[in-house]
Amino acid sequence: MIRLAVALCTALGGALVARTAAGYGAEDPFALGLTVLIGAGLLLGAVEQWRRAGRVRALRADLAAFAADAEPSPALRPWIDAVRAGRPLPSPPVGFTAYLLGLLVMLGMLGTFMGLVDTVAGARTALAGSPDADSLRAGLGAPLAGLTRAFGTSVAGVSASALLGLGLT
Length: 169
Prior knowledge:
Elements: H1 2-24, H2 29-65, H3 77-85, H4 96-128, H5 133-139, H6 141-166
Helix pairs in contact: 1-2, 1-6, 2-4, 2-6, 4-5, 4-6
């Protein structure tokens, strides 16, 4: 069941990231590169979650087969020893996915700020060098491309992070 959730979240996140990347094509290599990095982070996190789900499945099988008088498997020994001794349960190791959740959002925000910088610079140039309304309209095309970068990379980063985080539950 956990692996199914991981697979569905990865597929949905991958589709959103791929749609964003396809929108950039060759028009904006920087935004395309950020989106590809976001997709790679999503895939790395999905692999880690897939492996984690396998470990959870193995531990559940060990627990189901464990009898009170039997010797626990090496995977269960730290938890059983802690319960018997009245100590707190050992915490599982922190995986790479926890870091990726923040990194994916950060990459999306980087694209946002780079796009907004392009928008402001392009708008300033268009307004300063436009004697009439037609040239002003033509000059505002580049700043609008900056807004496309800004919000597209944010959508990819935030959605990939959110969907990767669903696999943690």
